Amino acid sequence: MKHPKQLLTVLLMAATCTLYAQRNETLLEKNWKFSKGDFKEASQPEFNDSKWESVVIPHDWAIYGPFDKYNDLQNVAITQNAENKASLKTGRTGGLPYVGVGWYRTSFDVPVGKDVTLKFDGAMSEARVYVNGQEACFWPFGYNTFHCDVTPFLNKDGKSNTLAVRLENRPQSSRWYPGAGLYRNVHLIVTEKVHVPVWGTQLTTPHVEKDFAAVRLQTKIANTGAKTKIRIETAIIAPDGSVAVQKANTGRINHEQPFEQNFIVNNPSLWSPENPSLYKAVSKIYADDQLVDTYTTRFGIRSLAYIADKGFYLNGQHRKFQGVCNHHDLGPLGAAVNTAALRYQLELLKDMGCDAIRTAHNMPTPELVELCDEMGFMMMIEPFDEWDIAKCENGYHRYFNEWAERDMVNMLHNYRNNPCVVMWSIGNEVPTQCSPVGYKVAKFLQDICHREDPTRPVTCGMDQVTCVLANGFAAMIDIPGLNYRDNRYQEAYDQLPQNLILGSETASTVSSRGIYKFPVEEKKGVKYDDNQCSSYDVEACSWSNIPDEDFALADDHHWTMGQFVWTGFDYLGEPSPYDTDSWPNHSSMFGIIDLASLPKDRYYLYRSIWNKNAETLHILPHWTWPGREGEVTPIFVYTNYPTAELFINGKSQGKQSKNNSSLKSRYRLMWMDAVYEPGEVKVVAYDKDGKAVAEKKVRTAGKPHHLELVSNHNELTADGKDLAYVTVKVVDKDGNLCPADGRLINFSVTGAGKYKAAANGDPTCLDLFHLPKMHAFSGMLTVIVQSTEASGELTLNAKASGVKSGNIRIQVK
Ligand code: GAL
């Protein structure tokens, strides 16, 4: 028997071992200091930052404005848009002050004798990371995740370590709002000397069928010496939390040598957008019989097939992509990542029937990829908008030759275990596509994808169809992706050996929520005095098209693989068609959903075709048109039903059925001759058997009477991060939206929350997002409130002159 004191020592040692055997991964979110500007000594521990602003990471230094026409004013010819003379581009990067140098400083404590890595999910941009005054790493591309081993720079005596990060954004470095600063999370990873390094596992499912799936896990181990004996015990955990299968393997594993384990999972629950089932491989690593690390690899089991002439198959089932492209900003929150905001975006898209996301034109934040795994969205992950030839004077081309491979490898290692990722893109509309040797660059990038991830094909968004068909560029890419140019699909299909065409970017229809223009005509590049576009969904840019064209391509040709619409959400910057000397426009009009996360009419058009499980019956325009009495005011109905009858003040305007007489009439029901008279518009929908099955009404609004508040959530998590999106509407006494109202609304939040931001979706509005007041646009806006870390109740109050105030209460738990 052991002496009690000895026993205590043994117990303490065991406790210490367990404690340190766990890798410790934390986010460095709080206690940061920030300042814009350059400071010679800011990397040094003794630098005095007490006067700097205190910030929480993720942080976007530019989103607080102010907006200014002269922020990154660009005098350029956008050659992709067929411009050959330079002109003044206003609001191209959002009119926000993202350009310049900024510094962030914090400190962190780690136990002595550990290996320590810092991982930055993204830092905008040209990040120089200093630990205790010494430069630990440099990573120029602002969108990519990078990590650095900071062990050599740590204080050896256990004293707090100083972390300083210098970031710099050059003018004319982007075609949209890039954000600025430490806008994504920073991870502190503390491990034993022997450990699984960042992205150290690669999990594939080489064989998938209904009855069983083969799972292959390759694990790298860092810092194994020649004599170290390694044992890896891995358990595969099923979606219900049970252990599906487990295995222990022992062997000699050299430093960073992949070590393979193979498993069979019986009756797997296959991952798909409709059934996003997730498994986990939990690996315990023993070095010389000591537990040194526990590493979890989340994955899904699903099969992908891209078959010539047939298209895309997920788990053996044919499907066409119903996807959207999105930029990374979160509208009024800027580029600063917030999981609740991302989740809400995906909820809206899911309800529309969208099943895929293209991360245009750069690496996403890891939270988005995780959410796509969990909520069921397929992803095309894209690294670049620019290769070796410039699109922007200070764009990525400055770094391409030296950094492209490292950037690709990080992206591929970061996301190759995520089941949602179904293909990689290597670029978007790169000028290199027209170079006679452009195919070599494409091959270089495609080969990196194949080398690092042999399980997924590669695509590239190509817009110069003539070039890429003639010079061999398109024939090189696993899956040829065309951006727009739907009139060239057939020709591309006929010529290309892949016998498949993907709509890597489609539509770019433009509209402003709640704004309608007369007469209703299809137009390209049209501009109006109010700098808005029509929500009849008939307007596009010279290179782009209305949604109906892409629906038809998917419906009519078995070799089309579906599409990624430009864009799901409006974004900051690129305010086409008001991009040339058109200040104050500073945000896009391409979105199906506006910058305030409010669906435009177009949302219901996509929903009516894409969401096969829900009823869509949507009427446009609104029916409050003082001054238009007696004038032709066409009415459109977006519905999944084949037929509907329209009534104005009870008088039938006749039945319409979807038909092949024109492109639009295949997908929309349209009463082009409807005449405005105040009152009520009613639509009655009929199913394919001629049975009346649904009804919808829109009424002319009376005088603005009160503010109506509706939240997307009645309950928030008390984590200081969760968000509620509250729609604020100006309505008449009966609750009808006053669709032309633009009054200023003031907000205040009391209780367990704080006001975060507001947005109204008006691309010309210069109200600052973070101030608690904003003008309504087309009668509406969105207020975002954030929970505190303490539970309780929060109340959002909204006030405006001339109408009754409104408020809403939200529980914070
Ligand atoms: C495409 C481009 C996108 C966006 C879009 C607007 O050519 O890839 O980034 O600019 O046009 O329609």
Automatic annotation (TrEMBL):
Domain Beta-galactosidase jelly roll, first and last residues per copy: 82-169
Domain Glycoside hydrolase family 2 immunoglobulin-like beta-sandwich residue range list: 204-302
Residue span, Glycoside hydrolase family 2 catalytic domain: 307-522
One function term, GO molecular function aspect: beta-galactosidase activity
EC number: 3.2.1.23
Ranges where the DUF4982 domain occurs: 630-694
Gene Ontology biological process terms from the UniProt entry: carbohydrate metabolic process
Domain Glycoside hydrolase family span(s) in chain numbering: 707-808
EC top class named in words: hydrolase
Keyword terms: Glycosidase, Hydrolase, Signal
Keyword Signal attributed: yes
Signal peptide region: 1-21
SUPFAM superfamilies per UniProt: (Trans)glycosidases, beta-Galactosidase/glucuronidase domain, Galactose-binding domain-like, Invasin/intimin cell-adhesion fragments
NCBIfam families given in the database record: GalB
PANTHER family found in the cross-reference section: BETA-GALACTOSIDASE, BETA-MANNOSIDASE
Similarity annotation: Belongs to the glycosyl hydrolase 2 family.
Protein name: Beta-galactosidase
Organism in which the protein naturally occurs: Bacteroides reticulotermitis
